[in-house]
TrEMBL record:
Keywords: Heme, Iron, Membrane, Metal-binding, Monooxygenase, Oxidoreductase, Transmembrane, Transmembrane helix
Residue sites binding heme per the record: C455
Alphabetized InterPro entries for the sequence: Cyt_P450, Cyt_P450_CS, Cyt_P450_E_grp-I, Cyt_P450_sf
The UniProt record lists the keyword DNA-binding: no
Cofactor(s) needed: heme
Family per similarity comment: Belongs to the cytochrome P450 family.
Name recorded for this polypeptide: Cytochrome P450 704C1-like
Amino acid sequence: MGILFTIFTFTAAVLLLIIITFLYLTFQIYSGKSIKNPNYPPVNGTIFSQIFYFNRLYDYQTEDAKKQKTFRLLAPGQSDLYTTDIRNIEHVLKTNFDNYTKGKYNQDIVIDLFGNGIFAVDGDKWRQQRKLASFEFSKRVLRDFSCSVFRRNASKLVRVISEMAIGDQIFDMQDTLMRCTLDSIFKVGFGVELNCLEGSSKEGTEFMKAFDDSNALVYWRYVDPLWKLKRYFNIGSEASLKKNIKIIDAFVTNLIRTKRKLLAEERLCDDKEDILSRFLVESKKDPEEMNDKYLRDIILNFMIAGKDTSANTLSWFFYMLCKNPVIQEKVAQEVRDVTRSQDDVVNVEEFTANITDTGLEQMHYLHAALTETLRLYPAVPLDGRCAEVDDILPDGFRMKKGDGLYYMAYAMGRMPYIWGEDAEDFRPERWLNNGVFQPESPFKFIAFHAGPRICLGKDFAYRQMKIVATALLRFFRFKLADDTRKITYRTMFTLHIDGGPRICLGKDFAYRQMKISAAVLLGSFIFKLADEKKPVNYRTMINLHVDGGLHVYAIHRHSTLLITSVMRLSNVFLEKQRLAESQYLYGSVGKQIHVCSRNWH
């Protein structure tokens, strides 16, 4: 009886606590909000009502925005205004910048993940990080170093995708791109070779998953009225978040300590190219303030900016190219034209190494297609500020001190009054004037933010995306594995594709691979069966293998030398046999041909 009474008492106490919390929140939500006052935006519900359509949150906001450019959702102690009005956005992000901050409400929600990083703070902390980051991003050495890393990882990406495609695998494009950009950001940002793309870093893969899951779990707090209670009792989503944060902190702490040790041993701090090394040098000036916790926050903020922006955008970009094959071919043709690789097959590493800034700047259609992707699928679909004083917006609506104002980048890209009646169509040409890219106002195209807090890494992100896209579209054509599957997003701070786009390369890829292999081998050798009397049979299995392999003699076309040893064709390494004209290949026949040509017909 005692145990049952204890359980009953505990359950009753928890239920009472939930009821009290609910009543308190209800009072906080509806009191003093001037609900029927026409001087304030119309009320479309409460922030907690969003829980019912959380999985399609940005589309729901788009539907509301098409009815009202500015509307309100009620929250405890404040109102949250949502707007697509360009005038309001410029007012908040530029004209009246000092009167709008991240605010305590937002900081309380994100602090466990982002801490005191640049995206979560205001005032002097923001200015200090912004100044240092701006100084680093402006340096030529970082630009040159990052480009070399992007090119090298783009080459690896081509090889990895080739290996998957050779086996006729359907692969998750987003996961593959995430691994690629994670490797790039770790090398450029922290000077570490993670090798997540090639699957050799278990810790890196675990970190990436924990970081992405934490991103979604923290975002859930915006619609969960009980998240603080759950955090206190360490249950539900908050227990999962705590577990993921532990993985993240352990990984980043180890990274910082290892980096400090390496820099101390090398005594080359001032010559280091990666950003973390430079922040570590700066931390010596104020070790108490710029401690390991501070550096941890900087790293994670840099991570979400560097990894998610590029990988998410590229994922949506290739998805849209699959849905619009004519546009895919236009981008690919521009790549061939600018890189002058129209009629020849080239070595992947050589091709990526020769991708230049000048060449990238000439790819206006590629730039337009990436920008059009960001218009419809912005990396950060929703962002906002908190009013520090009472204010009147340009559209005439009032705001009270403490109210939040959120600008809806995802919804803005779909507003006919901003982009025309074809706003929801994927049309890169809207960004071109006589074939030359024409930018729009950052308050209209808000994907990279605007005003004093505009994204410092905008050019950095475009450069990475264009290098990756150039390499992939030079060698592959992409298709959706299942055209009927509905693609949607995962609701979090950044716009991930839920489950990733499932991609295949189609029969064209296989034919190209076979043609390249046959051309190289037959261009160098004459083949004869080792035993013409021996019957050649297949092995009964899913794939039609030659039972026991194909045993041949190989006679070099350019030599009288007869290769008399009997060998299995699958053990002839092309890398050792190739001639000067076949330097676009690497790998082996028995393994996989790692490169295919889009132009081998």
